[in-house]
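Quick one, C-alpha coordinates below. Sequence please?
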Protein backbone atom coordinates (compact mmCIF):
# COMPACT_ATOMS: atom_id res chain seq x y z
CA UNK A 1 0.00 0.00 0.00
CA UNK A 2 2.75 2.45 0.92
CA UNK A 3 4.55 1.66 -2.35
CA UNK A 4 1.99 3.61 -4.38
CA UNK A 5 2.05 6.79 -2.33
CA UNK A 6 3.24 10.07 -3.83
CA UNK A 7 6.65 11.52 -3.05
CA UNK A 8 5.30 14.29 -0.73
CA UNK A 9 3.31 11.73 1.28
CA UNK A 10 6.39 9.54 1.63
CA UNK A 11 8.33 12.52 2.97
CA UNK A 12 5.55 13.24 5.47
CA UNK A 13 5.49 9.61 6.62
CA UNK A 14 9.29 9.56 6.98
CA UNK A 15 9.30 12.79 9.00
CA UNK A 16 6.38 11.64 11.17
CA UNK A 17 8.14 8.34 11.86
CA UNK A 18 11.33 10.26 12.69
CA UNK A 19 9.50 12.51 15.18
CA UNK A 20 7.77 9.52 16.76
CA UNK A 21 11.10 7.69 17.03
CA UNK A 22 12.64 10.73 18.71
CA UNK A 23 9.87 11.36 21.25
CA UNK A 24 9.20 7.70 22.05
CA UNK A 25 12.93 6.94 22.17
CA UNK A 26 13.63 9.65 24.74
CA UNK A 27 10.63 8.55 26.85
CA UNK A 28 11.74 4.92 26.62
CA UNK A 29 15.24 5.88 27.75
CA UNK A 30 13.86 7.68 30.80
CA UNK A 31 11.61 4.74 31.65
CA UNK A 32 14.51 2.32 31.19
CA UNK A 33 16.80 4.38 33.42
CA UNK A 34 14.05 4.62 36.04
CA UNK A 35 13.60 0.85 36.09
CA UNK A 36 17.38 0.44 36.26
CA UNK A 37 17.50 2.78 39.25
CA UNK A 38 14.72 1.02 41.13
CA UNK A 39 15.64 -2.58 40.39
CA UNK A 40 19.39 -2.16 39.68
CA UNK A 41 19.06 -4.43 36.64
CA UNK A 42 22.26 -3.02 35.18
CA UNK A 43 24.31 -4.57 37.96
CA UNK A 44 23.93 -8.01 36.36
CA UNK A 45 25.05 -9.16 32.92
CA UNK A 46 21.49 -10.02 31.94
CA UNK A 47 20.36 -6.55 32.94
CA UNK A 48 23.05 -4.95 30.82
CA UNK A 49 21.87 -6.97 27.83
CA UNK A 50 18.28 -5.86 28.49
CA UNK A 51 19.36 -2.22 28.73
CA UNK A 52 21.30 -2.55 25.46
CA UNK A 53 18.24 -3.94 23.69
CA UNK A 54 15.95 -1.24 25.09
CA UNK A 55 18.34 1.54 24.12
CA UNK A 56 18.62 0.33 20.53
CA UNK A 57 14.98 -0.43 19.76
CA UNK A 58 14.89 2.05 16.82
CA UNK A 59 17.73 0.17 15.12
CA UNK A 60 16.10 -3.18 15.95
CA UNK A 61 12.83 -2.04 14.37
CA UNK A 62 14.56 -0.88 11.18
CA UNK A 63 16.60 -4.09 10.94
CA UNK A 64 13.52 -6.29 11.41
CA UNK A 65 11.49 -4.41 8.81
CA UNK A 66 14.34 -4.39 6.28
CA UNK A 67 15.14 -8.07 6.85
CA UNK A 68 11.51 -9.07 6.34
CA UNK A 69 11.38 -7.07 3.11
CA UNK A 70 14.74 -8.36 1.86
CA UNK A 71 16.32 -4.89 1.89
CA UNK A 72 19.78 -6.10 2.86
CA UNK A 73 21.62 -2.85 1.94
CA UNK A 74 19.37 -0.99 4.40
CA UNK A 75 20.34 -3.35 7.23
CA UNK A 76 24.05 -3.06 6.60
CA UNK A 77 23.91 0.66 5.88
CA UNK A 78 21.93 1.44 9.01
CA UNK A 79 24.10 -0.62 11.36
CA UNK A 80 27.49 0.20 9.85
CA UNK A 81 26.62 3.81 8.98
CA UNK A 82 25.14 4.20 12.44
CA UNK A 83 28.61 3.72 13.94
CA UNK A 84 29.90 6.84 12.21
CA UNK A 85 26.75 8.86 12.85
CA UNK A 86 26.64 8.04 16.56
CA UNK A 87 30.36 8.74 16.96
CA UNK A 88 29.79 12.05 15.17
CA UNK A 89 27.20 12.87 17.84
CA UNK A 90 30.03 13.23 20.38
CA UNK A 91 30.93 16.43 18.52
CA UNK A 92 27.55 17.90 19.52
CA UNK A 93 28.23 16.92 23.12
CA UNK A 94 31.66 18.53 22.92
CA UNK A 95 30.15 21.75 21.55
CA UNK A 96 27.49 21.76 24.28
CA UNK A 97 30.02 21.60 27.13
CA UNK A 98 30.03 24.83 29.11
CA UNK A 99 33.53 24.40 30.54
CA UNK A 100 36.65 25.86 28.97
CA UNK A 101 38.13 22.43 28.30
CA UNK A 102 36.94 19.85 25.71
CA UNK A 103 34.72 16.89 26.54
CA UNK A 104 37.55 14.37 26.15
CA UNK A 105 39.46 16.18 28.91
CA UNK A 106 36.48 16.46 31.24
CA UNK A 107 35.40 12.83 30.85
CA UNK A 108 38.59 11.14 29.71
CA UNK A 109 39.73 8.07 31.62
CA UNK A 110 41.15 4.64 30.96
CA UNK A 111 37.63 3.20 31.21
CA UNK A 112 36.32 5.51 28.46
CA UNK A 113 39.20 4.45 26.24
CA UNK A 114 38.56 0.75 26.95
CA UNK A 115 34.86 1.10 26.11
CA UNK A 116 35.78 2.77 22.82
CA UNK A 117 38.39 0.14 21.98
CA UNK A 118 35.76 -2.52 22.69
CA UNK A 119 33.52 -1.00 19.99
CA UNK A 120 36.52 -0.82 17.62
CA UNK A 121 37.32 -4.51 18.14
CA UNK A 122 33.72 -5.48 17.37
CA UNK A 123 33.89 -3.36 14.20
CA UNK A 124 37.04 -5.21 13.13
CA UNK A 125 35.28 -8.54 13.67
CA UNK A 126 32.43 -7.19 11.55
CA UNK A 127 34.85 -6.42 8.72
CA UNK A 128 36.11 -10.00 8.86
CA UNK A 129 32.50 -11.12 8.54
CA UNK A 130 32.20 -9.13 5.32
CA UNK A 131 34.99 -11.19 3.80
CA UNK A 132 33.21 -14.51 4.35
CA UNK A 133 31.61 -15.84 1.10
CA UNK A 134 27.77 -16.13 1.27
CA UNK A 135 27.96 -19.90 0.81
CA UNK A 136 30.03 -20.32 3.98
CA UNK A 137 27.35 -20.35 6.70
CA UNK A 138 26.46 -21.97 9.98
CA UNK A 139 22.72 -22.71 10.01
CA UNK A 140 22.21 -19.91 7.42
CA UNK A 141 24.16 -17.55 9.69
CA UNK A 142 27.44 -15.77 9.09
CA UNK A 143 29.91 -17.34 11.58
CA UNK A 144 31.21 -13.90 12.44
CA UNK A 145 27.71 -12.68 13.31
CA UNK A 146 27.76 -15.32 16.04
CA UNK A 147 31.29 -14.32 17.06
CA UNK A 148 30.24 -10.66 17.33
CA UNK A 149 27.51 -11.35 19.85
CA UNK A 150 29.75 -13.70 21.86
CA UNK A 151 32.43 -10.98 21.97
CA UNK A 152 29.80 -8.37 22.86
CA UNK A 153 28.49 -10.34 25.84
CA UNK A 154 32.04 -11.11 26.99
CA UNK A 155 33.01 -7.46 26.63
CA UNK A 156 30.00 -6.35 28.65
CA UNK A 157 31.06 -8.63 31.48
CA UNK A 158 34.64 -7.30 31.44
CA UNK A 159 33.66 -3.61 31.23
CA UNK A 160 31.03 -3.94 33.96
CA UNK A 161 33.71 -5.44 36.20
CA UNK A 162 36.23 -2.72 35.33
CA UNK A 163 33.74 0.03 36.21
CA UNK A 164 34.13 -1.03 39.84
CA UNK A 165 37.94 -0.69 39.80
CA UNK A 166 39.18 2.73 40.86
CA UNK A 167 42.29 2.92 38.67
CA UNK A 168 40.21 2.61 35.49
CA UNK A 169 38.09 5.58 36.56
CA UNK A 170 40.89 8.04 37.32
CA UNK A 171 40.51 11.41 35.60
CA UNK A 172 42.46 14.68 35.60
CA UNK A 173 42.35 16.65 38.83
CA UNK A 174 40.20 19.41 37.31
CA UNK A 175 38.06 17.11 35.15
CA UNK A 176 34.30 16.76 35.44
CA UNK A 177 33.29 13.17 34.66
CA UNK A 178 29.93 13.44 36.42
CA UNK A 179 28.03 10.57 37.99
CA UNK A 180 28.76 6.95 37.22
CA UNK A 181 26.47 4.27 35.85
CA UNK A 182 25.64 3.26 39.40
CA UNK A 183 24.47 6.78 40.17
CA UNK A 184 21.82 6.91 37.48
CA UNK A 185 20.81 10.37 36.30
CA UNK A 186 17.11 9.51 36.74
CA UNK A 187 17.21 10.04 40.49
CA UNK A 188 17.57 13.80 40.07
CA UNK A 189 16.18 14.63 36.66
CA UNK A 190 13.23 12.50 35.65
CA UNK A 191 10.95 13.96 38.29
CA UNK A 192 7.68 13.02 36.64
CA UNK A 193 8.44 9.36 37.36
CA UNK A 194 9.43 10.00 40.98
CA UNK A 195 5.91 9.55 42.41
CA UNK A 196 4.77 6.98 39.84
CA UNK A 197 4.39 3.31 40.65
CA UNK A 198 6.57 0.61 39.15
CA UNK A 199 3.57 -0.65 37.19
CA UNK A 200 3.09 2.78 35.63
CA UNK A 201 6.74 2.96 34.55
CA UNK A 202 6.61 -0.56 33.11
CA UNK A 203 3.48 0.47 31.19
CA UNK A 204 5.29 3.52 29.77
CA UNK A 205 8.20 1.26 28.83
CA UNK A 206 5.97 -1.20 26.93
CA UNK A 207 3.86 1.45 25.18
CA UNK A 208 6.86 3.44 23.96
CA UNK A 209 8.60 0.24 22.87
CA UNK A 210 5.62 -0.64 20.67
CA UNK A 211 5.52 2.92 19.30
CA UNK A 212 9.18 2.70 18.34
CA UNK A 213 8.70 -0.64 16.60
CA UNK A 214 5.81 0.79 14.55
CA UNK A 215 7.77 3.96 13.76
CA UNK A 216 10.77 1.85 12.72
CA UNK A 217 8.65 -0.07 10.23
CA UNK A 218 7.38 3.09 8.52
CA UNK A 219 10.82 4.69 8.77
CA UNK A 220 12.44 1.82 6.89
CA UNK A 221 9.71 1.40 4.26
CA UNK A 222 9.27 5.10 3.49
CA UNK A 223 13.04 5.66 3.59
CA UNK A 224 13.66 2.83 1.13
CA UNK A 225 11.07 4.23 -1.28
CA UNK A 226 12.45 7.76 -0.95
CA UNK A 227 15.93 6.48 -1.77
CA UNK A 228 14.54 4.81 -4.91
CA UNK A 229 12.62 7.92 -5.98
CA UNK A 230 15.67 10.13 -5.39
CA UNK A 231 17.94 7.63 -7.16
CA UNK A 232 20.08 7.27 -4.05
CA UNK A 233 21.51 3.92 -3.03
CA UNK A 234 19.47 2.34 -0.24
CA UNK A 235 22.64 1.59 1.69
CA UNK A 236 23.86 5.19 1.60
CA UNK A 237 20.44 6.55 2.55
CA UNK A 238 20.26 4.11 5.46
CA UNK A 239 23.82 4.97 6.53
CA UNK A 240 23.03 8.69 6.68
CA UNK A 241 19.37 9.73 6.95
CA UNK A 242 17.93 6.64 8.66
CA UNK A 243 20.98 6.22 10.88
CA UNK A 244 20.66 9.85 11.98
CA UNK A 245 16.97 9.45 12.82
CA UNK A 246 17.54 6.30 14.87
CA UNK A 247 20.30 8.17 16.74
CA UNK A 248 17.97 11.04 17.75
CA UNK A 249 17.09 9.52 21.17
CA UNK A 250 20.81 9.16 21.97
CA UNK A 251 21.38 12.77 20.91
CA UNK A 252 18.62 14.06 23.20
CA UNK A 253 19.55 12.03 26.26
CA UNK A 254 23.26 12.59 25.67
CA UNK A 255 22.84 16.37 25.52
CA UNK A 256 20.76 16.19 28.69
CA UNK A 257 23.61 14.31 30.38
CA UNK A 258 26.17 16.91 29.28
CA UNK A 259 23.99 19.81 30.43
CA UNK A 260 23.84 18.37 33.96
CA UNK A 261 27.53 17.41 33.98
CA UNK A 262 27.28 13.64 33.43
CA UNK A 263 29.95 13.73 30.73
CA UNK A 264 31.14 10.15 31.04
CA UNK A 265 27.59 8.80 30.82
CA UNK A 266 27.03 10.66 27.55
CA UNK A 267 30.11 9.11 25.95
CA UNK A 268 29.57 5.69 27.48
CA UNK A 269 26.02 5.50 26.11
CA UNK A 270 27.28 6.29 22.59
CA UNK A 271 30.10 3.75 22.61
CA UNK A 272 27.88 1.15 24.24
CA UNK A 273 25.30 1.76 21.52
CA UNK A 274 27.95 1.34 18.83
CA UNK A 275 28.94 -2.02 20.27
CA UNK A 276 25.37 -3.26 20.57
CA UNK A 277 24.40 -2.25 17.02
CA UNK A 278 26.93 -4.68 15.59
CA UNK A 279 25.45 -7.54 17.62
CA UNK A 280 22.22 -7.01 15.65
CA UNK A 281 23.76 -8.68 12.60
CA UNK A 282 22.94 -12.05 14.16
CA UNK A 283 19.32 -10.91 14.58
CA UNK A 284 19.34 -9.78 10.93
CA UNK A 285 20.70 -13.16 9.78
CA UNK A 286 17.96 -14.99 11.66
CA UNK A 287 15.11 -12.84 10.30
CA UNK A 288 16.44 -12.65 6.73
CA UNK A 289 17.51 -16.33 6.71
CA UNK A 290 20.77 -15.42 5.01
CA UNK A 291 24.26 -14.24 6.04
CA UNK A 292 23.72 -10.49 5.83
CA UNK A 293 27.33 -9.45 6.43
CA UNK A 294 28.53 -11.61 3.53
CA UNK A 295 26.45 -9.43 1.19
CA UNK A 296 28.23 -6.20 2.17
CA UNK A 297 29.84 -4.10 -0.54
CA UNK A 298 32.81 -1.78 -0.87
CA UNK A 299 30.92 1.18 0.55
CA UNK A 300 30.12 -0.80 3.69
CA UNK A 301 33.79 -1.63 4.14
CA UNK A 302 34.67 2.05 3.76
CA UNK A 303 32.02 3.02 6.32
CA UNK A 304 33.43 0.45 8.74
CA UNK A 305 36.97 1.74 8.35
CA UNK A 306 35.68 5.31 8.70
CA UNK A 307 34.00 4.43 11.99
CA UNK A 308 37.18 2.75 13.26
CA UNK A 309 39.23 5.86 12.46
CA UNK A 310 36.73 8.16 14.19
CA UNK A 311 36.49 6.01 17.31
CA UNK A 312 40.29 5.57 17.43
CA UNK A 313 40.74 9.33 17.60
CA UNK A 314 38.49 9.52 20.64
CA UNK A 315 40.05 6.43 22.24
CA UNK A 316 43.43 8.17 22.09
CA UNK A 317 41.98 11.48 23.30
CA UNK A 318 40.42 9.84 26.36
CA UNK A 319 43.96 8.84 27.34
CA UNK A 320 45.92 12.00 26.45
CA UNK A 321 43.07 14.42 27.24
CA UNK A 322 43.79 17.53 25.14
CA UNK A 323 43.17 20.73 27.11
CA UNK A 324 42.41 23.34 24.46
CA UNK A 325 39.21 24.12 22.54
CA UNK A 326 38.94 25.68 19.10
CA UNK A 327 35.56 27.09 18.04
CA UNK A 328 34.09 25.40 21.18
CA UNK A 329 35.47 22.01 20.07
CA UNK A 330 38.42 19.90 21.09
CA UNK A 331 41.04 19.14 18.46
CA UNK A 332 39.85 15.52 18.44
CA UNK A 333 36.32 16.54 17.44
CA UNK A 334 37.62 18.80 14.69
CA UNK A 335 39.74 15.94 13.36
CA UNK A 336 36.72 13.61 13.46
CA UNK A 337 34.70 16.10 11.38
CA UNK A 338 37.45 16.29 8.77
CA UNK A 339 37.79 12.51 8.55
CA UNK A 340 34.03 12.06 8.24
CA UNK A 341 33.80 14.61 5.41
CA UNK A 342 36.69 12.91 3.60
CA UNK A 343 34.90 9.60 4.04
CA UNK A 344 31.69 10.99 2.54
CA UNK A 345 33.67 12.33 -0.42
CA UNK A 346 35.26 8.94 -1.01
CA UNK A 347 31.83 7.29 -0.85
CA UNK A 348 30.51 9.76 -3.43
CA UNK A 349 33.17 8.54 -5.87
CA UNK A 350 32.00 4.91 -5.70
Amino acid sequence: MINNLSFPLLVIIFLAAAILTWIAGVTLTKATDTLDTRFKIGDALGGLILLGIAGSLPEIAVVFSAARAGHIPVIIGNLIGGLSIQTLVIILFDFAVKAKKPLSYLAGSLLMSIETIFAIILTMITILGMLIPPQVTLFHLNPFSILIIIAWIGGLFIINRERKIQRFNLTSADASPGRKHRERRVAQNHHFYAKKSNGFVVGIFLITAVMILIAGFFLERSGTLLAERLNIGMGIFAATAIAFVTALPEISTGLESVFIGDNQLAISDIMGGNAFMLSLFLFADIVAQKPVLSLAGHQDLILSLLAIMMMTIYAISFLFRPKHRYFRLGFDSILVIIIYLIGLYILSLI
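The chain has one domain: 2-349. Residues 185-190 have pLDDT under 50 and may be disordered.
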